[in-house]
From TrEMBL:
One of its GO terms (biological process) is glycerophospholipid biosynthetic process. InterPro entries: CDP-alcohol_PTase-I, HAD-like_sf, HAD-SF_hydro_IIA, HAD-SF_hydro_IIA_CECR5, HAD_sf. This is Uncharacterized protein. It comes from the Eukaryota. Pfam families: Hydrolase_6, Hydrolase_like. PANTHER family: CAT EYE SYNDROME CRITICAL REGION PROTEIN 5, CDP-DIACYLGLYCEROL--GLYCEROL-3-PHOSPHATE 3-PHOSPHATIDYLTRANSFERASE-RELATED. It comes from Kalanchoe fedtschenkoi (Lavender scallops).
Amino acid sequence: MVLRTITKRLISQTRSRKLTVSSISRSLSQLHSRPSFGIAFDIDGVLLLGSTPIGGSQKALAKLYEDNGALKVPYVFLTNGGGVTESKRASDLSSILGVDILPSQVIQGHSPFKKLAKRFENDLVVAAGKGEPAEVMYEYGFKSAVSIDEYASCFDNIDPLAPYKIWGVRQTDPKPASRKVSKGDIMSQRVKAAFIVSDPVDWSRDIQVLCDILRTGGLPGREVGKQPPLYFANDDLEYQAAFPSERLGMGAFRIALESVYNRIHPVGLEYTSYGKPNPFVFENAESVLKELLLLNATGSNKEAAHQFKKLYMVGDNPSVDINGARKAGHPWFSILTRTGVFKGKDNHPKYPADLVVDTVEEAVNFILSKEADW
Ligand SMILES: [Mg+2]
């Protein structure tokens, strides 16, 4: 039953990427024996800087496939980033990294929001962040998700600084024809939850509008009301992008929002943050890796695939990737690269990794030599 569900999901995800079902079956069934290990790769600062491959990442990933392109070692991408659907990210990563990546191999900061879709299925919810935040939520099953851009545009003068924002607004979050949230709905219905899907773009407007939503119980411009739930996809203070030093992340935005909110509202801001280093993110990664292995397993193989002896987390951020793997405990083994946030000579003093290497290619070489007998 579970297997059928997984297969069905993979099939539907695969269709969107124009891969054939048989290519995936072939890929996974050709795991000549089932490895008792798996790998989770962070993306930013490990495999990519911006959209440029680093640390021999293309060569490293190629080693996880057979010569004919079949998957040899189960692996996932475990990133706190996001802003686009998992299928789009898989397709983008496939073309940058030169291997065939499935949507189910991509676990983003906002992926756990899926689990809240039933609770807010038909409720008006606001989605903030770069990229296509409302599209992401809609694909997860939030039928009345609205981007904060669209939401703010429905309220005249909600952002008094808007006339001074001369950079203009580029519509990046298309509204599917099937979505039925009108301006009238937006202005009359209470927002039941706010989701910070990816790094917010216009902090001043977003802090203003979120304070309006949160302090009024979901109806800006009205009386004070009970705060609706607020969810963040991650709590990263900083992350490594293409600029030489770290950039402020969603955790920095959370601090800004919380500081302002707590100064203008008598009750402190309540929120939930997802993403690494929460141990449940690693538990989820483990079950996704199992699903990849179980897809074509039968009988005793199914049992054999059920337990991993070792799971490797390859990351660049000690407080996020390494701290998370340490908290998750057995069977996680942490590998810290020097291509991103961490640039130290020795191990990190507060969150020491099980192994420190220069690049992701070195990490994969280590794993494959260690697991040579699987
Ligand atoms: Mg990183």
